[in-house]
Design a protein that fits this description.
single chain; binds adenosine-3'-5'-diphosphate
C-alpha cells in the first residue's frame, strides 16, 4: 500500500506504551491482586506490574510519566493498572475522567467487616506493638461508638466513595466484582470481567484449581509462570480472633451503608 498506510500499519503492530483503558480502582483488601493476576492471563490484557499510584501520589508528574509506567502493547490489547487507593482518594475520579472519560473501572468489594479485619491484619504484620482491632475500631473502649476516622473502618463505607465516582462516570462504566465470589467461583467473576471489557472468554474454570493448603483458588499457569502457583504469602493471611460483640456492632454500623451501596449498584452483595 501507500507509504501512509504502511506507516499506520507499522504503528499498530509495533509494541508501544499507552495510557490505561481500564483501571482496577479498589477496594483495598478485597481481592484486587487476585483480580489483576486472573484477568492478565488473557492474551489481550497487559498490566503494569506494581501499583503505579499516579492519580493519588504522582499526579504532578504528568500523563507522560504515567504512560511510561505502562507495559508495551500491540493493537487490540487492553492496558490495565491497579491501585486500590484510587477508589477512596477524593481527587481521583475527576483526574481519571480528565485523562479519559471512557475509562472502564473495575471495583472489587468485600464484606466491609472482613475487609477491615484484613486491612488491620496487614497493618499489624508491619508493626510490632499494634493495639487490638477492638481497641482501634471503637471510640472510648466500649463498643458503643464506631471510630469512623480509623482507615480500616472508613474505607468500608463504599457508598460514600462511589457517590464521588458517579459525579464523573456512568454506572455502566463501572463493574463491581464480589470479593467473596472471586474466592468461591473465580471463573464466574472473571467471565463477567471479560464480557465487560469486550474480550473473548479465554480465562475459564480450566485455569483455576482450589489449593486446600492455601485455602484459595490458585492458577495452573500465569502470564509470568507456566507452573501451578498461588498468590504470595501476603494474600490470604490468617486473621486474629475478634470478639463477637465487636463484629456484631460493626455489622450494625455498616448495614445502612451497605444497603445504600446495593441500591446504587443494583447488586445485592448479601453481606451479613
Ligand atoms: P486476606 O489476606 O485478609 O485473606 P488485596 O489483593 O486487594 O490486598 O486483597 C487481599 C485479599 O484477597 C486477601 O485478604 C484474600 O482474602 C483475597 N483473595 C481473593 N482471592 C484470593 C486468592 N486466590 N488467593 C489469595 N487471596 C485471595
Amino acid at each position: 500500500g501507500s507509504p501512509k498506510y504502511r506507516l499506520l500499519r507499522q504503528q499498530g503492530s509495533r509494541p508501544s506504551r499507552h495510557l490505561p483503558d481500564t483501571l482496577i480502582i479498589g477496594v483495598k483488601k478485597s481481592g484486587t491482586r487476585a483480580l489483576l493476576e486472573f484477568i492478565r492471563l488473557h492474551p489481550d490484557v497487559r498490566a503494569a506490574g506494581c501499583e503505579v499510584h499516579f492519580f493519588d501520589r504522582h499526579y504532578q508528574k504528568g500523563l507522560h510519566w504515567y504512560r511510561h509506567h505502562m507495559p508495551y502493547t500491540i493493537e487490540g490489547q487492553i492496558t490495565m493498572e491497579k491501585t486500590p487507593s484510587y477508589f477512596v482518594t477524593k481527587e481521583v475520579p475527576q483526574r481519571v475522567h480528565h485523562m479519559n472519560a471512557n475509562t472502564k473501572l473495575l471495583v472489587v468489594v468485600r464484606d466491609p467487616v472482613t475487609r477491615a479485619i484484613s486491612d488491620y491484619t496487614q497493618a499489624a504484620s508491619k508493626k510490632a506493638d499494634m493495639k487490638r482491632f477492638e481497641d482501634l475500631a471503637f471510640v472510648n473502649g466500649s463498643y458503643a461508638v464506631v471510630d469512623t476516622n480509623w482507615g480500616p473502618v472508613k474505607i468500608g463505607i463504599y457508598s460514600r466513595y462511589l457517590e464521588k465516582w458517579l459525579h464523573y462516570f456512568q454506572l455502566s462504566q463501572l463493574l463491581f466484582i464480589s470479593g467473596e465470589r472471586l474466592i468461591m467461583d473465580p471463573a464466574y467473576e472473571i467471565g463477567r470481567v471479560q464480557d465487560f471489557l469486550g474480550l473473548k472468554r479465554v480465562v475459564t474454570e480450566k485455569h483455576f484449581y482450589f489449593n486446600a493448603t492455601k485455602g484459595f483458588p490458585c492458577l495452573f499457569k500465569s502470564e509470568a509462570r507456566s507452573t501451578p502457583h498461588c498468590l504470595g504469602k501476603t494474600k490470604g493471611r490468617n486473621h486474629p480472633h475478634i470478639e463477637a460483640a465487636a463484629i456484631e456492632r460493626l455489622r450494625d454500623f455498616y448495614r445502612p451503608f451497605n444497603n445504600r451501596f446495593y441500591e446504587m449498584t443494583g447488586i445485592n452483595f448479601a453481606w451479613p
